[in-house]
Amino acid sequence: NGTRELGAAFRTTEELFVQPSPSVNNQFEEDPLLQLYLKRHLPSEYQLTVFDELRRFGHRVSSELVSLHKECEDHPPRLNQYDAWGKRIDKIWTCSAWIKMHDISAEEGLIASGYEGQYKAHSRLFQVAKNYLFAGHSGLYSCPLAMTDGACKIIKAMDRTQVAPFSRAFENMTSRDPAKFWTSGQWMTERRGGSDVANGTETRALPLSEDLAGPYALYGYKWFSSATDSNIAFTLARVVDKDGSTRPGTSGLSLFYVETRQEDGLLNNIEVVKMKNKLGTRQLPTAELILNGTVAHMMGDVGRGVSSISHMLFMTRLHNAIAAVSSMRKILSLARRYALQRTAFGKLLVDHPLHVRTLTDLEVEVRGSLLLLLETARLLGLEECGQASEHQKHLLRIVSPLLKLWTAKQSIGVVSEALESFGGQGYIEDTGIPGILRDTQVLPIWEGTTNILSLDVLRSVEKSQGKTAMAILREVDNLMKSSRDADVELDGPRDRLTESLRTVASFLAGTNSEALSFAARDIAFSLVRTYMGALLVEHASSTGQEVDIAVAQRWCSKQLTFIGNDYSSTSAKLDKSILMDGI
Ligand code: UCC
Ligand code: FAD
Description:
Butyryl-CoA Dehydrogenase, subunit A, domain 2, 19 helices, Butyryl-CoA Dehydrogenase, subunit A, domain 3, oxidoreductase, two-stranded antiparallel ribbon, alpha+beta, acyl-CoA dehydrogenase activity, 3 domains
C-alpha cells in the first residue's frame, strides 16, 4: 500500500520542473547599437519622433506580432486548383494571420515611409530601421514587402509615378490604407536558370498593338514566383518581332508590368501549376506559373530588361539584408534571455564564461552587419534626395551586393550556432526556433547567389572603370582617418585595417580579369570585412563606449583575413581533379 502511495506521488507532474519560455521583448529598446547609430546620424529635429515611433512599433511587434508570426508558420498557404464543380480557379488560400500582416504593413507604412519623405534624406534610414524590427517577426510577410519596395523603386526611378497603369500601382503600393494596399511579385527565374536570366528566359511577349509601350500578351513558364498572391509583378520577356523571331541574350530581354488579376477579379491568363514544396519559407506562397496570354505593359525600353529590373534587385537585396540581420538579432535576443534563466551545473548559463563567449562572438558579428545595413540605408537616402556625392554613389553601388552576400551567408552560421545555445530545445519545432534556421537558409540563394553577387561586385568595378573599388577603399581610409587621434585602444584594429586595405588594393591592381573572376568571392569577402571593420572602428571612436571599442577590437582581430589563395589556371585544374575524383 505504502509503495503504491509513493508511486502515485512520483507520477504527479505538478512538482516537475517546468522552465519558462524565453520571451521576445521590445526589440527597439533592447538594441543599443540601433539607438546609438540613429542618435549619431539623425538630425536632432527628427530624433524624438523617430525614437517614439520605433519604441511604439517595437512594443507592437513583441505584443501582437509574435503570435501572428507563429500562426503563419502553423497555417501555410494552399492551392485550390478546382472548385467543387470542376471549374479551374487556381485560388491560393492564405491564413488570416498572413492577411493581418498585409494590413499591419500598410497601417505601419512599412513601404510608404520610404516614399513619403517625412524625414527627407533620412526617410530610408527610418524605413529600414522599422522593417528591421518587423522582418524577423513578420511571418515572412517581409518577402512580399521586399518585392513591393522593389516595384515602387522601378516606377519611381524610371519616372512613371504619373503614367497609367503604373501610377495606380504606385499609389496603392505606397498607401497606408489596408483596403488599398497592393503588393508585388518579381518573376525572373525560368526553368533554364535563375542566375543567368539572359540565357534562361524563354517567355515571349506578343505585341497587341502598334504602340511599343503595349499592351503585350506574355507566353511562358515562370519556375519560381514568390508571394504569388500579389496584385502585380514585374517580369522579363522577349518581344516577338513581326517575322515571329525573338532576340537572344541580354539585349533581347525587356521588362514587363503585369496585374495578376483582371478587372472582373479573374486571373490575368495565368495558370498556377503547383506550389513549391520548400525546405523553409513555408509561410510564403511560392508557385510555378504558366503565362498564357497574360496582358502586360512594357516598362522602359525594348531590350533594356536586365538594366531596368536592377532597380528592383537593389531594393530586394537590401530587404534580404534586413531579413538576415533581423533574424540574427531575434535569435540572439532569445538566446540572451535564455542564458539569464537556464541553469546547468548549478549556475545560470550566463555565469558560464564559455557559453557567454560563444554568444558574444555572435553578438559582435550581428553588430557589424547591423552597422553595414544602416550605413547602406543612410547612403541610399542621400542618393535618392540628390545629396550623395559621386564618391557616395559609387560606394552605394558596390556596397549593395556586398551587403546582401555577406549578411545572407553570415546569418546561417550565426542562427545555427545560436540555435545550439538552447540545447535540445533549439531543435524542437514548437519553440519556433528551428523555423528561423530554415528561413535563413534561403537568403544566400534568392535575389542572387553568393557567387553571382561576388561577380556583381566586379561588374560594378568594371562598369565604373574602377571607381566603385576606389570608393570603398577610400571610404575605409576616410573612416580610419576620422578616428585617428581617438582612443589608443583602437590602434591595433587600425593597424590591421591598414594591412587589409593594402593587401586588397594591391591584389585588385595586380591581377588580370580572368583571375579576378576566379577570385571574386574572396575579393568580395575581403572588401566587405575590411569595410565593416572600418565602420566599427569609426563608430567606437565616436561613441567612446567600452562595449563599442571591444566590439571593434574583436571584429578586427578575428574577421580581417587576407586574400592569399592561388587563382592560377593550374590551381583551377587541380580544383576540378579534387572535386571530381572518383566520378
Ligand atoms: O529570387 C527572387 C525573389 C525571391 C523572393 C523575394 C525575396 C526578397 C528578400 C526577402 C527577404 C525576406 S527574384 C529573382 C532574383 N534573381 C536574381 O537576382 C538574378 C541573379 N542574377 C544576376 O544578378 C545576374 O548577374 C544578371 C541577371 C544581372 C546577369 O545578367 P547579364 O545578362 O549577364 O547582365 P549584364 O549584361 O552584365 O548586364 C546587363 C545590364 C548592364 O547595363 P548596361 O546595359 O547599361 O551596360 C548592367 O550594368 O544590366 C546592368 N546591371 C546592373 N545595374 C546588371 N546588374 C546590375 C546591378 N546589380 N545594378 C545595376
Ligand atoms: P543556378 O543559376 O543554376 O545556379 C546554381 C549554382 O551555380 C549556384 O550555386 C550559383 O552560385 C552557381 N553559379 C551560377 N553561375 C555561376 C558563375 N557564373 N560563376 C560561379 N558560380 C555560378 N525567382 C524569381 O524570379 N522570383 C521569385 O519569386 C523567386 N522565389 C524564390 C523562392 C525560393 C524559396 C527560392 C529557393 C528561389 C526563388 N527564386 C525566385 C529563384 C531564385 O532567384 C533562383 O533560384 C536563384 O537566382 C538561383 O538560380 P538557379 O536556381 O537557376 O541556380
